[in-house]
Amino acid sequence: MKGYNGKILAVDLTSGTVEEIALPAQILQEYIGGSGLGAFLMAKYVDPDCDPLGPDNKILFLTGPFTDTKVPTSGRHQVVTKSPLTGIYGEGDAGGSFGVYLKRTGYDGIMISGQAKHPVYLWITDQLIEIRDAEKFWGMDTYQIGPLLQEETNRQAVMATIGPAGEKLVKLAGVFHDNQDARPAARCGMGAVMGAKKLKAVVVYGRKGIELNDKLALTASLKKWRKQAVDATETLGKYGTAGSLAGIEQIGDLPIKNWSQGSFTAGAEKIDGYALVNDQHFSSKYYCRSCIIGCGRTVKIIYGREKGEKGAGPEYESLAMLGAMNLVDDLVTLLKANELCNRYGLDTISTGSVIAFAIEAFEKGYLTSRDTGGLILKWNSAEVLLTLIKKIAYREDIGDLLAEGVRAVSAKLGEGTREFAIHVKGLELPAHDPRAFNSLAVAYATSNRGACHLQGFTHLLEKGLLLSELGYESPLDRFSTENKGRMTKDMQDLMCIFDSLKLCKFFLFAQVPLAEIARWYSWITGNKTDLAELLKIGERIYNLKRLFNLKCGITASDDNIPRRILAEKRGSGGAADNLPPLQVMLADYYQARNWTDGIPDQAILKAVNIEKWW
Prior knowledge:
The chain is of the alpha+beta class. Helix 1 crosses helix 2 and helix 18 crosses helix 20 (484-501).
């Protein structure tokens, strides 16, 4: 098949050996690449019972057929592993340029197993593969290490790195790419997996090109649709993902004060994307490779006496979870908090969530100043936010506990804290409230990596996005439950395809027909496929991940969301009185999936050709 190198690189850090694993055309046709290929490789090579921080677990960096093509927003790759935070399937989608240069080394991905005896990094080009000593880099943050690794390798090299949080096996640690551009695969604790393997970084640089099956047809189509895509995403590019933060607050979607408060109007206006663009610290827009949108932000901040340094600015999720969740409405504080998370290598969503949980636990007497090194935990405090970020990254006093994540902290502090421990399957909720969009309740409950809006992106259809090719030709009532289970299933299958082709989720806003995207895949690979066949592949991928999780021990009882979201009304704002009826939608979802008690029926496993995995 065209569009691929047809092989991945397998590295065993225990033995120091490397080998190539061929990717047969049939496997690429059945799983595409990226997330789908990750699901196949996890099922084939990873024991679901393995210790996520042990040598038998693997971490994979995978590209897709769209990576390193002219397809807009395709400069992406997938990171896949068994999560130490949740104990189940873990993955993250990252932008930047790492995936492009990884593919140019001649490999479609890397699968890393084992544990090195001392810190190492991988240096991979289209000419050589080396496991190099990284002792002198151990302890450095993700901003510091980049230029030094480029001096040792190639000044144009790009890298995936961990910061001190990953080294300390913090279960909120992510993998960060492209130095200070800080493109993260942040969720699920994948940075801790690298830390456990003593793997400080993966550095890549290659110049191999990929042959396309019908470059002329692809080029003509891309030219035809480019202007529409640019125009349709103009606002997102101008104000970034946080441009809608104040509007999100108005409709009741913004999480506030550990999901307990309904409104944060004045605060939201101070920290949204419009405020950031007009702030003196805003520097420029940032574009991932092949991107036409430019929703990323670059900032240069001066915090107190600290000298300003350019780096990645905060996205919506970061401003919401570090800011509104903790009632912090000072933009400069949040710019600094985001920078610290990037430097230390922390997921801003889980970090903001566990800090908010700790503040509420402190208020209710489950934590005291003896636990926190004398720090009084309170809302709207720059000191508390910035101090706890560092404590978590370095596992200092209370940070050692918070580094385990909300579920583990709640289990430690006692049964009473479960009422405000907001997670699904161990993964803290992202910054969208199911009380504002009913579909998010079933999407979070059934997401294969725990609470995740991106694995379904269902709330877009409840905000007005139309996908007539899937049968959604008019806006959906966000407070209705009708067909929300089936819609969630349809969107999860579609998002599996985006994550496998390697296409940014925001390309949905470009209003390019899904059938045209299917044609791009055919022109790139030579595998003539239509939208219906792609969606069937998405269904195969989603079910295979579910099988992996079932073998990890999850049951239908885990397909749930926190009581606070199900039973406590927000009380004010744009979703003041709605509570999502999860069980109604979950029954619809199971029926649409052909699952019984959360387990895929043999008929659906046979239909998508994965019965051998169960």
